[in-house]
Specification:
The structure is a single chain. This protein has 203 residues and is mainly β. It has a nine-stranded mixed β-sheet with strand order 1-4-7-10-13-16-19-21-22, with no helix packed on it. It has a six-stranded parallel β-sheet with strand order 3-6-9-12-15-18, with no helix packed on it. A four-stranded parallel β-sheet has the order 2-5-8-11, with no helix packed on it. The radius of gyration is 18 Å and the shape is globular.
Length: 203
């Protein structure tokens, strides 16, 4: 076994767990789940059959990932993030046929107690603030907050809110890395040729 499991964790077979992954206290991975390499699953995490988790993901305590959820690489799920798989649940009505998929893009962050309503896609490197409720697709690099969640800005790959560049309204930069981003309509694009610190590119 090339991954770590705490003695209290339950891992049903068959499932896939990548090398270097750590599964902590009282977590439960069901048969049919796929977990990539180098992940960290905190205490009391539930992973249903059919769930796919990419490499390098960090899932904090008390998160349940239900059938239909897929996390791409390097996704961060804060404590008590909520996923759903049915939009109109009733205890007296079985709606297993109505499960809707949820996909979270590479590098995205989901803050503590955020709720991700099924049938939505969270874009790459997006940031969903703590307590937000997403009811629609989230663009790449979008900063979302509120109930229901609305876009309030943009974030870079480092997870910080991007700042406008003086006299260049379509250009944003990361205050930590200096990486530059170009805003085009509703998409945020990262030009490969402009990833050096801003002081070298902008007088």
């Amino acid at each position: 076994m090339d991954f770590f499991r705490h003695p209290t964790a339950i891992i049903d077979e068959p499932c896939q767990v990548g090398a270097g992954t750590k599964i902590w206290h009282f977590s439960h991975v069901m048969a049919g789940a796929q977990i990539g390499a180098g992940c960290n699953l905190g205490q009391n995490v539930f992973v249903a059959g059919g769930v796919r988790i990419g490499a390098g993901c960090k899932i904090q305590n008390n998160v349940s990932l239900y059938e239909g959820v897929e996390l791409e690489d390097e996704v961060f799920c804060g404590p008590s993030v909520v996923f759903t798989n049915v939009r109109h649940p009733r205890a007296a009505i079985s709606r297993r046929h109505a499960y809707q998929p949820t996909r979270v893009g590479r590098g995205a962050t989901l803050g503590a107690n955020a709720t991700i309503v099924c049938g939505t896609r969270i874009g790459r490197y997006a940031f969903v603030a703590a307590g937000a409720v997403t009811t629609r697709d989230v663009p790449d690099y979008a900063l979302m907050a509120g109930v229901p969640a609305r876009q309030i800005g943009w974030v870079g790959r480092a997870g910080l809110r991007l700042e406008p560049v003086a006299e260049q309204p379509d250009l944003l930069r990361c205050p930590e890395s200096g990486e530059l981003y170009v805003l085009q309509s509703d998409q945020l694009l990262v030009p490969r040729q402009e990833t050096t610190p801003p002081e070298k590119d902008i007088p």
